[in-house]
Design goal:
InterPro entries: Hexapep (IPR001451), LpxD (IPR007691), Trimer_LpxA-like_sf (IPR011004), UDP_GlcNAc_AcTrfase_non-rep (IPR020573). Pfam families: Hexapep, LpxD. GO terms for molecular function: UDP-3-O-[(3R)-3-hydroxyacyl]-glucosamine N-acyltransferase activity. This is UDP-3-O-acylglucosamine N-acyltransferase. The chain contains three helices and 35 strands. By secondary structure, the chain is mainly β. Among the domains are: about 90 residues, Udp-n-acetylmuramoylalanyl-d-glutamate--2,6- Diaminopimelate Ligase, Chain: A, domain 1 (3-Layer(aba) Sandwich); about 130 residues, UDP N-Acetylglucosamine Acyltransferase, domain 1. An eleven-stranded mixed beta sheet has the order 6-9-12-15-20-23-26-29-32-34-35. A hairpin with a 4-residue loop joins strand 34 and strand 35. The longest helix has 16 residues. The protein is flat. The termini are far apart.
Length: about 325
Amino acid sequence: MKLSEFCQKLAIPFSGEEREINGLNALQEAGQNEVSFLENPKYASQLSGTNAAAVLVTEAMAQHLPEQCTPLIVDEPYIVLAKASAFFAPLRLEHDLPESIIGEGTVIEEGAFVAKGSRIGENCHIMPGAFVGNNVTIGDNTILYPNVTVYRDCKLGSDCIIHAGTVIGSDGFGFATTKLGEHVKIYQNGNVVIEDDVEIGSNTTIDRAVFKSTVIKKGVRIDNLVQVGHNCVVGEYSVLVSQVGLAGSSNLGRNVVMGGQSATAGHLSIAPFTTIAARGGVTKNVDKAGVYGGFPLMEHRLWLKLQGKLARLLKA
């Protein structure tokens, strides 16, 4: 839509260069036909380098924008972003796309559903009850067990195994809360990208990104009942054990191992070859590889000593 139309829909005053707008994106990643936003002054330094066509900002922050970027002055940028996300949400299911392309040797069992616009490689097996949405891409030799759901626009690599009941590409847990405590849905308009040689257990959920992609890299192994939030990146050959939870925008390096019921807070990173013991709680960046446990997180050896001392105190 035109930028002026975008502003009109949101009751924002508009004066500036007219542009065609095709989506929303983060400040550092937005292109010349996208709108971004800034809510937290902590990230004000990113304003000067943005390539966005326009940015939703408060009046106090507008002065930091580059000359070619149109400031859209609002009191609550995050709330307005949430409302605007609905403008670019794709249809749940489209029927006027080209027929799906199914590779040689692939078996689509009776009771499975493959939506139009999708492309499935050779020698795949899609079992009964599986759902593959519009514009999904699946590589060669990949297996979807019964009742696997792959939402539209997601990408799965070759040699993957997705076990029964897993959901790939469901909406991330995103909403903006008004001053009155009402929750405004942020439509998740990105996707999920799963690279080659990934195995995912049953009843796991991997949320699609708000913008761009949630990424599961090559060789990852994910157990049953794991939650991966929107915009996470799970590095090559990492292992997530049952009931692990990754909050949005967690970034795991290569060969990270997370034990059962361990979890991360959002927007943090874990160094490659790090192990988080069962029930470990990661609340800040882990910059050095090692074995960690407990909550708050500490070196696992130290955590074991602490538990031993607590046990002796209880006996005293």
